[in-house]
Amino acid sequence: MFSSWDWGVVILYLIGMVTVGIYMSRGQTSKRDYFLGGRNLSWWMVGLSIVATETSALTFIGVPAMAIGVLKIDGSGMYFTEGGDLLFMQIAIGYVIARVIVAFKMVPHYYRGDVYTPYQVLTRAFGPQPRYLSAGLSVFNMILQAGFRVYVTAIPVMIVMRTVFPEWGIWYSILLFTAISILYTSIGGITAVVWTEMIQFFIFFFGGLFAMLYIPTLLQGDMAAPSGATGWGAVFEVSREKLAYFHSGLVTMAPDQGFGAWIWANVKEIFGGRFNIWMGLIGATVGIMVSHGVDQLNVQRVLACKDEKGGRNALILSALIIFPQFLVFLLVGAGLYAYYSINGFDFSGMGPWDPRTVDAATGFGAPKADYIFPIFIVTHMPPVVKGFMIAGILAAAMSSLASALTAISSVAIMDLWRPLTGKSGEQRGELAMGRWGTLVVGLLLVFVAWAAKDADLIFNLVFQFAGIFSGALLGAVLFGMWTKAGHATPVMTGMIVSSIVMAVIVIATMTIEHFGINWPWYSFIGTSVCLIVCYLLSMGQTKPTDRSIDRPTEEEI
């Protein structure tokens, strides 16, 4: 299945990424070089890096799985799917809108002074305590998200390794590629991350584009649709129910339904039903304002540009790319569903599960749709191409992992360790601290990845947990931009209340059968709660005159 040529492509790719990391470490003498690339990176490189960070293996594997649906198996060993569609494209609309808002309304605040993280600006407006709280919540949030992404990437690694070592499990895969990512990231810092992500973007985007165009070519002859349609015609026929791309979220009033019941039915569908246009225009827009406006994972890249204009251009470039990219991978999922539906879900002897979950009595494991695309690559892609495709998955995964390593390390050191200990340190000492911090974070991500192995659709799980703290972080920063200055207690209380409310909602959604709020709304709800609490507790308080969110602190001068 996996030829020596394919292995050669993957190995050369991995060696190349480590080589770039080592090469980019030349001349690094300070934390500014390590965490911000000397603030001298081109905006178009950063723009591609932002897309690569956001994409990750979660998109490469998880988005096609969203189009396929939840994969299940009955008692007789027959596979079937539940759900699956293209409605996520409505969410991607908000991904575009939010980038424009962040580019013109939030980025300017981060270029006033020597800023390393977005949480530094909270010190300007409210004093140091909100900065510490937001940084702590952010580190915890990023570790959870990045750990889940590590698990997703381990799936294709495991499938490839099983072609040589049949008992190769998910744990070995997690350790293997995490070690490689830690190696080149800890050496090269953000410069290595941006350069490798730029390369990785082209690999995984064109890999997805190739898969989208290649899968329909297999639907010919015996693999034609029941009507005889071939190619894209077969995809459209067999996957018809999977190709829905718009849902208003509005429910038609039944003849015997009261007005109040009808309103409640619409509220439940808009907030807890399938992806709909309101989730995209409102929920996803606020969610991406979090990820690209206050999440260090992406803000760190924007801050690595030469100036404010460069940071703004980087975000606009990513906005132009992200929508068509999601469409490509959703269509890959529709093509995969058509292919495997026609061939009777024959996975060529490779079970879509971790071999360690196999039931000895039935011979079946716990099937997951996330495994389908990697299995298809290994079993049906042409030689050498499949090597590039697996390299593409590794590219997507390693880009996000490397980004998380530098982002978490920078927040932990610049917003927590450095100000709390009062040790500014000499430059080389802080550089060494950054590299050691990257190593520690990598070990934490391995632990989270192992804990995530039992999730059905990992894409949804990632955003569910991200929503617990995202609204608190955005709400605090937006309140600072609105009021310019204030006291710490209202802001910190708002962040804590928001996090508690969202934790209750997430747990209730996951455990209570008839309760559910879909994850695109989490950031919107959390932000709203935080802002309301901040406003109410700030009423009647006199604003401090010795600080402002637009005035750099001594630390930043």
Q: Please indicate the count of domains.
A: 1
> What does the average pLDDT come to?
82
Instruction: Quickly count the helices.
Output: 18
| Largest beta sheet: strand ordering | 1-2
Shape: globular
CATH H level, superfamily name = Sodium/glucose cotransporter
CATH architecture: Up-down Bundle
Poorly predicted segments: none
SSE pattern, N- to C-terminal: HHHEEHHHHHHHHHHHHHHH
Largest sheet entry: 2 strands, antiparallel
Fraction of residues in H or I helices: 55-70%
Strand content: under 5%
Terminal Cα separation, in Å? 58 Å
Radius of gyration: 24 Å
Question: What's the CATH topology name?
Answer: Sodium/glucose cotransporter
What class would the helix/strand composition place it in?
Answer: mainly alpha
Instruction: Say how many strands there are.
Output: 2
CATH class: Mainly Alpha
Structure commentary:
- This protein has 557 residues and is mainly alpha-helical.
- It has a single domain, classed as Up-down Bundle (Sodium/glucose cotransporter).
- It has helices at residues 4-24, 31-36, 43-68, 88-110, 120-126, 128-162, 170-214, 231-238, 259-272, 277-293, 296-303, 308-342, 372-380, 385-421, 427-451, 458-483, 488-511, 522-538, and strands at residues 70-73, 79-82.
